[in-house]
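Hi there, hope your week has been kind to you so far. Do you reckon you could talk me through the fold, stretch by stretch? I've dropped the whole record in just underneath, so have a look:
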Amino acid sequence: MATSPATPAAVPQPPAGETPLEFPDNRLLIDLCGPFDQYLTQVETALELQIVRRGNRLILIGEDVARQRGAEVLGALYARLEAGRTVEPGDVDAELRMDNSNVPTAPSDTDDGVRDGDQIEMFQGGRVEIKTRKKLVEPRTDAQQVYVRSLYANELAFGIGPAGTGKTYLAVAVGVSMFIGGHVDKIILSRPAVEAGERLGFLPGDMKDKVDPYMQPLYDALNDFLPSKQVAKLIEDKRIEIAPLAFMRGRTLSNAFVVLDEAQNATTMQMKMFLTRLGEGSRMVITGDRTQIDLPRGMPSGLADAERLLGGVKGVDFNYFTSKDVVRHPLVARIIEAYEKDTPAG
C-alpha cells in the first residue's frame, strides 16, 4: 500500500536563499544525517547545496531549485525512517536519482503485475519494492522502476543498456518474487556460453563444471535473494535451472520465469530459437548490452535483430538504460561515458 512521504515543516518567512526544515524526532534526524553527517554531504555534493544543522532543524542554503529538490529528498528519506526502514548511502543515491513527479501514486488498471501485492509492494508515492526471501529490492533510478513494472506487466520484456544498470539483477529478483509467490513453477536462467575476447581452453570436469564459469553472475544474483541451501535444493529439484543458451533448443518453457542474460552474444538464429520457447503461463526477460558483443567479427547480434523486428509487436516491451542508471561504483558510470564518447557515430 502506498504511503505519502512525511514532509518536514518549513519555517515561515525564512531569509532569502534559505529553507529551514524541522524534523520532530531527533533520533530519526541523527539517522537521516548519517555517520559523521555523511548523508547530508551526499545531498550537498549532488545538489550543490549547503546544509547547516541546528538542533532539530536543517537549514538548506543555495539556489531555489536546489533547495526545493533537497527538501524533497530529505523529506522522503525521513519518511523512510518513520516507516521503520533504514537509510544507507545507496538509498540516498536512489532518492537523488528519482524524479518523484514521474512516479504514479497508484498502479494503473491495466498494470496487473504491479497490482498483485503478493509479488510487489508499493511504497513512498507509488514506488515499488520486490519481495524476496532475503531482502526487499528497490529500484534506484526512474528507468529501473519503469523496467520492474514492465517485467510484471508484460509476458516478454527486454532490458538493454550498459553494465551495472541492474538489468539482470532486477530480472532475477522479479523471477524469485514470482516464484515464491506461486505465480510460476520454476526459474530458468540462461546465457550464451561465449568467451569475452579470450580463449579459456578445455575446462576440466563434467558438463556442469565446464559451463558454470559462464553462469556465475546468475548464481551470484540468486544467492542474493534466496538462502544458499535453498538455492542448491531448488537446483537439485530442477525448479531452478541455470544453463547455456544452446541447451534451450527443442524445449517449451511453460509456467516459468525465464531470463536470457548477455543476449547481445546470441546469434540471430539462437535468439529466434529462444524467443519461440515461450510457453503458457511463462514470463521471459531478455537483457543485453549492445556495446559488449563478443561474437566473431561479421556475425550479427540476435539482440539487434530482435529490436528491429519486435519493436511494434503487442505484448513485447523494450526498456533502455544509460550510464546515468549505473548503480555500481560512481566511477563505472564515468568509464562508460568515456567509452561512449570515443565510439564513432553509427
In short: The mean pLDDT is 82. The chain is about 40% helix and 15% strand.
